[in-house]
Write a structure and sequence with these properties.
The protein is mainly alpha-helical. It is built from six helices and two strands.
Length: 170
C-alpha cells in the first residue's frame, strides 16, 4: 500500500475465506483506483466505440452485481435494480451521459459495505439461491465469481483509463 495506491495485497498464507475476501477487496480497490482523479465527463467517456463501456458504467454495473449476488442470492432479499430497467437492461452502461458520478460512486460503495456485512461470520458453505438460474449457490462460489467479475471488468477499466488520459498500471 502506498499513498497513491491504497490497495492492500492479499495475504499469501491465509485461510480460504480470508483469501477470497482479500482478493475481492483488492479488485474493488483496483476499480476505484482506475477511476481516481478523473472528472465526471472523463468517467462517462465511452472511449472504445462502438462499445457502450465507460468507467462510470463499470462502477454502476458493479454496484448492481454486488447487490444481486450478496443481497438477493445470498440473503434472499427482493431487490430493485439501481440502474437497469425492464425497458433497458443495460441501463447501468447506457444511461451515464447525465448520471451523477458522485452519487453513483456512493451507491457502489454502499453496496460494497452491505456485501461485507452480508458475509460477515458466514461459513463458505452457506447456500443462497439464484433466482435467475433457479439453483443453489454457495458463498464460496459467489466470492470466487465476484473476484472473476471484477478481474474481467478491471481489464476493461485498464483499457478505458489508458484511452481517457494515458494512465497505465496495475
Amino acid at each position: 500500500m502506498t499513498e497513491l495506491d491504497p490497495r492492500v495485497d492479499p495475504p499469501m498464507t491465509a485461510d480460504e475465506a480470508a483469501t477470497l475476501t482479500a482478493f475481492l477487496d483488492y479488485h474493488r480497490g483496483t476499480l476505484a483506483l482506475k477511476c481516481a482523479g478523473l472528472t465526471d465527463d472523463q468517467l462517462r467517456l465511452r472511449s472504445v466505440p462502438p462499445s457502450n463501456l465507460s468507467l462510470l458504467g463499470l462502477v454502476r454495473h458493479m454496484a448492481e452485481v454486488e447487490q444481486y449476488w450478496f443481497q438477493c442470492v445470498l440473503l434472499g432479499q427482493e431487490i430493485t435494480d439501481r440502474f437497469c430497467t425492464q425497458e433497458n437492461e443495460d441501463g447501468d452502461f447506457d444511461d451515464v451521459d447525465t448520471a451523477d458520478a458522485a452519487a453513483d460512486f456512493a451507491v457502489w460503495q454502499a453496496e460494497i459495505e452491505a456485501a461485507r456485512r452480508a458475509v460477515e461470520g458466514l461459513p463458505l458453505d452457506t447456500v443462497g439461491k439464484s433466482p435467475r438460474r433457479g439453483q443453489p449457490v454457495t458463498l464460496r462460489w459467489i466470492l470466487a465469481h465476484m473476484v472473476e467479475e471484477y478481474a474481467r471488468h478491471n481489464g476493461h477499466a485498464d483499457l478505458l483509463r489508458e484511452l481517457v488520459d494515458g494512465s497505465t498500471g496495475e
